[in-house]
Specification:
By secondary structure, the protein is of the alpha+beta class. The protein contains five helices and six strands. A four-stranded mixed beta sheet has the order 4-1-6-5, sandwiched between helices.
Length: 140
C-alpha cells in the first residue's frame, strides 16, 4: 500500500501563523505516526543529524470552510490519521487552557487553520488531489 502524508493550511493565514500551524501539525503528526521518523544519520565527519521525515510532505492551501469540510470527511475514513489545528488551539496559552476551551466549543463552531493527513495514497488523493500547493495560489 502506498502511503501519503499532506498538510493543508488555511489560505488566509499571515506567514507567522501559517508557519506556527505547520509546526504544530508536524510535531503532532510525527508523534501520532512514529514510523515517519527514521533513525538518525551521520555525515562524513561522523556528526549525528536527526532523522528527517521519510516521505514527502506537500503543504497545500484551502479556504477555512473547505478545511472544515476536509477535516470532517477525513475523520470519517478508516485508515487515515487526521491531525487538526483550530483557532481554539491557536488562542490557548496552555494545553490545559486548550482542553478547557475545546470542551466548551461545539464542533460546528471550530475554525480550522490547518489539517494534516497520513494514510493510503489513494484515499488522500481523493480528498486533496485538486488542491494547489501553498504559496502557489491566491489566499482563500
Amino acid at each position: 500500500m502506498d502511503i501519503k502524508c499532506v498538510m493543508v493550511l488555511a489560505g488566509d493565514l499571515p506567514p507567522g501563523l501559517a508557519v506556527n500551524a505547520a509546526g504544530v501539525l508536524a510535531v503532532t503528526l510525527g508523534h501520532r505516526v512514529p514510523q515517519l521518523l527514521p533513525p538518525d544519520a551521520l555525515d562524513a565527519s561522523g556528526e549525528v543529524h536527526a532523522g528527517l521525515i521519510n516521505v514527502p510532505l506537500p503543504i497545500l492551501v484551502l479556504g477555512r470552510d473547505g478545511l472544515k469540510e476536509l477535516r470532517q470527511r477525513a475523520a470519517r475514513q478508516d485508515g487515515l490519521t487526521v491531525v487538526d489545528f483550530s483557532d481554539v488551539a491557536q488562542h490557548a496559552r496552555t494545553y490545559e487552557g486548550y482542553i478547557a476551551a475545546l470542551a466548551g466549543t461545539p464542533a460546528e463552531a471550530l475554525n480550522y487553520l490547518g489539517v494534516a493527513l497520513h494514510g493510503p495514497k489513494k484515499a488522500i488523493n481523493k480528498l486533496v488531489g485538486h488542491l494547489p500547493l501553498y504559496g502557489r495560489a491566491a489566499p482563500a
